[in-house]
Design goal:
This protein is an alpha/beta fold. The chain contains 12 helices and 8 strands. It has a single domain, classed as P-loop containing nucleotide triphosphate hydrolases (Rossmann fold). Helices cover 41% and strands 17% of the residues. Helix 1 crosses helix 11 and helix 5 runs parallel beside helix 6. 48% of the residues are buried. About 3% of the residues have low confidence. Bound molecules: adenosine-5'-diphosphate (ADP) and magnesium ion (MG). The site of magnesium ion has 4 residues, from helix 1.
Amino acid sequence: MVGRAIVVTSGKGGVGKTTTSANISMALAKLGKKVVVVDGDTGLRSLDLILGLENRIVYNLVDVVEGTCDLKKALIRDKRVDGLYLLPTAQTREKEAVTEAQMKKLSDELRKDFDFVIFDCPAGIEAGFRNASAGATEALVVTTPDVSPVRDADRIIGMLENQGKKKIHLIINRLRPKMMRKGDMMGVNDVLDVLNVSLIGVVPEDDAVVKSSNDGVPLTLTDNSPAGTAFMNIARRLTGEEVEFLDVENMDQGFMDKLRNLFSRK
Ligand SMILES: Nc1ncnc2c1ncn2[C@@H]1O[C@H](COP(=O)(O)OP(=O)(O)O)[C@@H](O)[C@H]1O
Ligand SMILES: [Mg+2]
């Protein structure tokens, strides 16, 4: 078996990469896939907290690449769902503690055992980005509909293309329909005008995200919130399922009503 290795990245920090990594990994596991989510944010880890697995960390990714511990020993199995594993990273080490070659080797190892290897990327375009993306052949680029994150996403997309990633998909996170309608915020089409890449999902601003992160329970574990549903749909699309897509061509009132209905559906 050779699983798919996907990096979740953005350029800009704070746009929802870790939230996306956690929710999509959980969603893919719920869809019956065997998934490992790798924390690529050495020194600033947070994926373990968002997944609620922080108390179970003994070994980490740096121990594995340094040969202090077996890969299997460092993996933490999520007991809430079959098939979800976390490979945490070190909190007290620098991003430079790992190399691109080590990450590539790690990814190759993991792909033998898992359907999906998801790398949560740190902010920035330096060592952390290069390491987290080294082992991935596909990318999910996350942006909010704001000018500066979109510009950073554009830059990252260029870098991912240069790395030869075979699939690059865009996620627009924290969309606020009301502000968008008033013209106070970029809409989906505005973002797509700037970023020439295929859209795989739009996630609304949702207070449930904050609570779920604090509780360490990803929304896709229960899947009854607007953002949780959006993340679940992205996971389904990743597996090749055709999920009704938001009509990004017709960003009129009718479209927004449809969007609201979609997101309020339980
Ligand atoms: N769709 C959303 N609705 C509301 N809050 C969100 C949403 N997505 C992310 N957030 C919040 O934004 C903050 C940054 O998210 P995070 O996933 O840590 O970003 P990154 O990993 O890109 O730095 C967190 O507090 C998170 O709870
Ligand atoms: Mg993060």
